């Protein structure tokens, strides 16, 4: 099973430029998570901070008990071996063929013989659909193949955690779906914890177990996919629908006057360029038939059912709807007992379990410019920290 990654109060700036502050989230072991965010919100900086390539100003990022922000160089080097990283551009060596590119970490970090290396490299190339392309140079293959080669290389050290920076960028929608399926299949095969950074809505809707979003230098929310996909948060709605209407502007954010102007234009019938409302929970991609079932799915169900009562009603409904009748029985829930404020608790159910109204502090919302110490954002808890 992949490792759990606990990020607490992570804050990063470059000189006077604050990138994000107080990012707190837990990547549950073996689950797939996506971090969304408009361009320039610091998604790549976040990934690099998680592996210690960039040094955050404060906060912690703990893997197997090691805080990579403060640990020694030696510990950092050791802990980094748990990670496989697919950088945004694939980061392949242009003068090396795919075989040598993929073999590189093995030759660099292990004492394996060339025979052992050959076995691993061919296996990973096969896993990513690149069997037969070993002798090609990065410049001779398509963008999608380069991504897959980068992914093969990220896999050779049997990572417990895989970080993918925009695995879809530069790919057409069909190739994006292929890489999405590949990531799910990899998760099924190796049960690694996966974090994908992306601004691709379709990928975000179909691939991950958990979704987060960075905006205005903060983590707007992070939690089970059903929370973000049903969110009424203006920035989330705008992002999912690719609309100009909302707080995200041409260069990251806009003021309220501009927002009012655009709203007035839209009210007068000017099309704002968005698609129809795509919010809502769509089925999640499953591993290709024949592969093992994703172990993370069962673990996630147990985890999410523990925090169900803390989630917004629409998310609760989506989660319960996604359970089979047997599972609903096992967890003691049923769909028609969920929504509706003030509804009587059916006997035998936990108090306050499926109430329609949530206390305001449990609903995810946009961070205010100056926020007092406490946090009101959604976040899943690791298995070690029992739900509230
Ligand atoms: N090494 C660096 N030094 C200074 N500024 C940087 C560095 N890396 C990124 N930035 C700045 O951090 C911000 C976030 O960048 P990035 O993480 O690449 O955004 P995203 O991946 O979300 O598009 C940008 O304004 C970028 O210019
Ligand atoms: Mg980036």
Automatic annotation (TrEMBL):
It comes from the Bacteria. Residues 342-355 have a biased composition (Polar residues). Pfam families: ABC_tran (PF00005). Residues 268-279 have a biased composition (Basic and acidic residues). Residues 266-299, 335-388 are annotated as: Disordered. InterPro entries: AAA+_ATPase, ABC_transporter-like_ATP-bd, ABC_transporter-like_CS, P-loop_NTPase. The lineage of its organism: Bacteria, Bacillati, Actinomycetota, Actinomycetes, Pseudonocardiales. Residues 5-241 form the ABC transporter domain. GO terms for molecular function: ATP binding. This is ABC transporter ATP-binding protein. The keyword S-adenosyl-L-methionine does not apply. Keywords: ATP-binding, Nucleotide-binding, Transport.
